[in-house]
Amino acid sequence: MRAGIIFKVGQADTCTNIRGNFRYLPVDCYQQQSSRNTTWFVENVIKYHRMVENYVSTLLDCGFTLEGLKEPKPLASALKEPPDLERYTRYAPFLVLKAVKR
Q1: Could you report the per-residue pLDDT of 1-34, keeping only the tens digit for each?
Q2: For the segment 59-100, what is each residue's pLDDT rounded down to a tens digit?
Q3: How far apart are CA 56 and CA 37, in angstroms?
Q4: Residue 6: strand, helix, or coil
């Protein structure tokens, strides 16, 4: 077994390498829209998972026109300090939708 290929699931559903460094967030049961318990600053935080399709379809079904969709990422200058911001280039922590009522 080679070092660096061993992973574990850490706190807040992150996968880390053997040194404990962040590697990625696992995506599991993506299509099961539901409430999920997690640790986010404190224990037992309830988050509500929805698929991107659900957000967009709901807006369209309610008479909105989608004008934009963004998945923001850190600025290159922001990645220098603190160094752990690099993790946010590995996945999209936010989804921003711009919609206007028709």
Answers
A1: 333 333 333 345 677 778 877 777 777 778 888 8
A2: 999 999 999 999 888 788 877 777 677 777 777 778 899 999
A3: 24
A4: coil
Q: Do 10 and 21 meet the contact criterion of CB atoms below 8 Å apart?
A: no
Query: Is the same domain home to 42 and 55?
Result: no
Residue 54 burial by Cβ neighbours in a 10 Å radius (0-12, 13-18, 19+): exposed
Domain extent, residue 63, equals: 51-102
Do 69 and 36 fall into the same domain? no
Whole-number Å distance between alpha carbons of 97 and 56: 8
**94 and 55: one domain?**
yes
Secondary structure of residue 7 in the 3-state scheme: coil
How many domains does one find in the chain?
2
Whether 56 contacts 66, CB under 8 Å: yes
Range 81-84 contact pairs with CB under 8 angstroms and sequence separation of 24 or more: 84/22
